[in-house]
Amino acid sequence: MCSSQRGDPNEEEMLAFLDDQMPTEDFSEIQFGTRVGCIANMLQLVIKEALKNSRVVENLLSQVHNVVAFFHRSAYWNEVLLKECGMSLTPSPDSGHWNSTFVSMRRMVLEAVWGLVMTLLSQARIEAKDSSSSPPMVRAKREQVVDIIGLLEPFEEAIQVLQSDAVTFSLIIPSLIGLDRTLETLPTNYSHFSKGLRSGLHTHFQPLIPQRDLILVTVLDPHIKLQPFDNARQEGDTSTLAAPSKFQVRTLVEASVTDMDSWNPLVKQKESEDSHEASSSNSCSVKLKRKSIFGFLQPAAKTMKLSELDQYLSEPVLNGDCSTQVFWRDASRFPQLQSTARRLLAVPATSGGFDRLFPMASCIVRAKRSRLPPHTTERLLLYRESLKGKDGKTSNSNGFT
Q1: For the chain, what is the HEC assignment?
Q2: According to the model, what pLDDT value does residue 23 have?
Q3: What confidence tens digit (pLDDT) does each residue in 100-144 have?
Q4: Residue 75 reports pLDDT greater than 50
Q5: Other CB atoms closer than 10 Å to residue 350's CB: what's the count?
Q6: What's the gap between Cα 338 and its chain centre?
Q7: Domain boundary at 113, 128, 163, which?
Q8: Half-sphere exposure (Cβ direction) of 4: Cα atoms closer than 13 Å
């Protein structure tokens, strides 16, 4: 390949980058329990199904959505709204469809904006020349819409967290459990809609909660560890997500890292020495334990065997300012867990990061460059992301290689 601009100072660096050989390491040894779909899409599906079963809520949200669409179509009335309250209902092009629409609806239900929007809609109806240009009718009350948006805000927060550029795979279980518990405590006049949301969470995500890889990656996040799991598992309730107990999680993780887990070599050497000394002295020493007069003596202290998992869990969780990547990069004291963490924590929770690459890929692979091999296209995208990282901008990479 040659740069499109002759004399480009980055031409040699880019060509060297593209000429690099593909890594030969095979990651096929990573075994995942079940293929997991995009968590963000599944959360949106939960909302859609709950709306279908709650026509009242669907009708109220449809009215608000029609108002947002009207101001999006009408540049004039949107400009008037912007001058009156300094706020626009036009969705931001930087965010996705779900986020932009939800943000616009949340702006509309602000107390200062709601009344002005209703006034402008009345004026627009008077000035409308025909029915096609007339704004939609709104019978919904602001309090009703605020109540419904309050039930959807936890979903928006979970989607934003799981679509972020940071480590997100370990946040699936905490996000789902936290979302379910938040819905349980939220006061609402639309309990049927709330129950539909929680029922959808149970239907779509309950089979994912007990999966080995999700549990393992949750525990290997030093900010989380065993915190999302209760001491005892609650079963029998089909309206709420049921997570394994801490004992079950610990047993599962121990079984998963059995082949990688090893005793501390220093402790093992100390035990071997103590065992050798004890065996050599038993033949010439008096067995004091058999004499009742020595019953007050404490037994000899035994060296506890601490596995890597025990040592890891005994340490306090990291605060929010510490980086997960930095922790596991420097965690040479946990070699087996470090290897597992580097592989599992690199898995994204959603496909949002990949979706953001599609527009750039379409700019690279055009009609006149349709014969570019997939390897070259991939390397060009990676090169662009590496340049963004050098410039100090946000990168889609989660920091693991």
Answers
A1: CCCCCCCCCCHHHHHHHHCCCCCCCCCCCCCCCCCCCCHHHHHHHHHHHHHHCCHHHHHHHHHHHHHHHHHHHCHHHHHHHHHHHCCCCCCCCCCCHHHHHHHHHHHHCCHHHHHHHHHHHHHHHHHCCCHHHCCCCCCCCHHHHHHHHHHHHHHHHHHHHHCCCCCCHHHHHHHHHHHHHHHHHCCCCCHHHHHHHHHHHHHHHCCCCCCHHHHHHHHCCCCCCCCCCCCCCCCCCCCCCCCCCHHHHHHHHHHHCCCCCCCCHHHHHHHHHHHHHHHHHHCCCCCHHHCHHHCCCCCCCCCCCCCHHHHHHHCCCCCCCCCHHHHHHCCCCCHHHHHHHHHHCCCCCCCHHHHHHHHHHHHHCCHHHCCCCHHHHHHHHHHHHHHHHHCCCCCCCCCCC
A2: 45
A3: 778 888 889 999 899 999 999 999 999 888 877 788 899 999 999
A4: yes
A5: 22
A6: 20
A7: 163
A8: 3
Other CB atoms within 10 A of residue 343 CB: 15
Bigger pLDDT: 267 or 144?
A: 144
Residue 395 resides in a domain: yes
State which of 139, 163, 187 marks the end of a domain. Answer: 163
**Which token pair is 194?**
């709330």
Cβ atoms of 183 and 154 within 8 Å: the answer is yes
Segment 55-84 mean pLDDT: 90
Cα 173–179–182 angle (5° rounding)? 140
Half-sphere exposure of 381 (CA within 13 A, CB side): 22
pTM, two decimal places: 0.70
Number of domains the chain is built from: 2
In a domain, 97, yes or no: yes
The values of phi and psi at residue 238, to 5°, are -90, 0
Has residue 169 been placed in a domain? no
* pLDDT value of position 271: 45
Contact 313, 222 (CB under 8 A): no
Q: What pLDDT shows up at residue 15?
A: 56
Domain with 376, as residue range(s), is 351-401
Rounded Cα–Cα distance for residues 136 and 132 (Å): 10
Judge whether 257 lies within some domain.
Answer: no
